Queue: 2 jobs
Job 1
Amino acid sequence: MKVPSGLPGWIFVPAAVGGLFVVLPLFAMLASVDWTRFFELVTSESSLAALELSLRTAAASTALCILLGVPMAAVLSRSSFRGLNVLRSLVLLPLVLPPVVGGIALLYTFGRKGLIGQHLEVAGIHIAFTTTAVVLAQTFVALPFLVVSLEGSLRTAGRRYEHAAATLGASPTTVFRRVTLPLVLPGLVSGSVLAFARALGEFGATLTFAGSLQGVTRTLPLEIYLQRETDADAAVALSLVLVIVAVVIVVGSRGWASRAAL
């Protein structure tokens, strides 16, 4: 059977099953919300503190991802040297590592007796189990999302406009700033949103490296986990808040990126 899309009819069956697999649990959670206590549950002191901390640290980690990820994506997409594939694999490693493993790795790097942390301790700088640790944990797991998205955009864009600008006498920095970045802006926005969403939902690495201190390191996912043990209704309500925030950000950014691409 043929359909106007040009796809075989059977392909819509597993596609529909996949869609239901993603959407149905969200509807199940929505149906489980205690709407009579919803605002009471999501506006408690601990809930608001966790939400505020999550948004603040996710924004900081996204900024750090942009600062580090844009040069990384440029190097991976525009360079050619021995070991490049190995470097790419290492950059993308946090995508497949269990988050708790990432947390342990960060702890043994920036902890009190860590590779770098022991020297920072001498200087009076403490990172583990602080808000800074939350930002670093979120950045560690979110950075590959921005790099992958932006590297794909850079490869798709090609290099003809960059070559033209260089031929006209523009320096490499000017070409990168005035040509390359505007050309891949939609990809940068998409990657930044993916990084923000991943940072917002980070749990394992944060718990291992930063702990769970209210107002300092207890982000919304950690608050949901703790509430699940004592008040299931609060956990469901807070989960819905996290879903709503993520949906608004992703949908809004995709619309902006689509307009920017026109």
Job 2
Amino acid sequence: MNHLLSRHKESRKLTTLVENRTTYNAEYAELNIFETHKHAEQVSLTFDFPVIASMLTGKKIMHLEGMDPFDFFPGESVVMPKNKEMIIDFPLADKNNPTQCLALGIDSHKIEEIVEKFNHNVAIERENNNWNLNDTSSHLVHNTDINHLVGRLVHTFTDQNKSKDILLDLMIQELIVRLLQTKAKAFILNNPTDTFSDTRIGMVIKFIKNNLTNKDITVELLAEKACMSTSHFHKKFKNTLGISPIDYINSEKIKFSKKLIKQSKNLRISEIAYKSGFNNISYFNRQFKKMEMITPQQFKKSFIKG
């Protein structure tokens, strides 16, 4: 992400070492890039419009109403309703390694327009769900597609392209839709018993969660559990959750590995990989970096420092 900020660094003015703010405007949105260059605690921010905040570099500890404090890393986002306060700690920020975050503010009417289209076209089996970004704060772990989209947004906002507003219009619509998909998917995966208790995909999700560290879980095995052909199961799973069976399994294993790193600081990374259900350490490292934007070792060091 650092290379995407090069144009920003050339033009921005550094007036404070804590949450230095640079704003880029578009037709119905604004991009704020915040930079903190020293350790700080209990920094308050409030916006009078809905905000999608994404970490670029470093680490924050976020304190949001109705949620336990949590670590905020690159590749993750927070969706904040307007006029909601966020309290932020910066445990690792310094002159050579600033903590950088973007806050994308979008006009409420634009969000409502896209949400209405999304809810009209997306429905979860046997559920009457209306998804939105304006009710409560949400901590969302982004996928690779969203990370790339955030990078494109930064590049376009800081560019002087004559088609800037048109390009941003398309990208912001895509971002809102992907965030809504992520929110819907999180609901499905966190409530498999309630949502999918009588479906074959629901049974597979519960099987994966109950056998997460099993190194022999294959798509073929899951298809057999679902009483489907392998090709039909793969298509059904991805259409339902927006993610392939293997990517879902790996994301759950990486999530489990992060808990192990936090709880067992003396374990080697190779031991973490094995206990998380990975046979290959290199594959574990690649998957971890792909999903978390940092290596397992970097995550371990940042957690211990924090």
